[in-house]
Amino acid sequence: MFLAVAExxxxxxxxxRLFVSxxxxxxxxxxxxxxxxxxxxxxxxxxxxxxxxxxVLSERAKALLHEAEALVEAVKNAAETD
Length: 82
Fold this sequence. Notes:
By secondary structure, the chain is mostly helical. The protein contains four helices and two strands; from the N terminus they run αααββα. The model has no long low-confidence stretch (mean pLDDT about 95).
């Protein structure tokens, strides 16, 4: 949910994209912020902006997702050669 909010710049738009409620999205991000001990977004009336900590998380999360996709592809390719 964090990346969806970061990409959309809005909890409401992220919730629509994910087919969940605004409150579910907001609670999930708040729980992540508590767990990490860092504010990830600056909240404004209709939008959000990543904090420096949020920018770090966004960059690293995207890299991890890319690596996970590459791992799946590598395993599939290896299985085809068996």
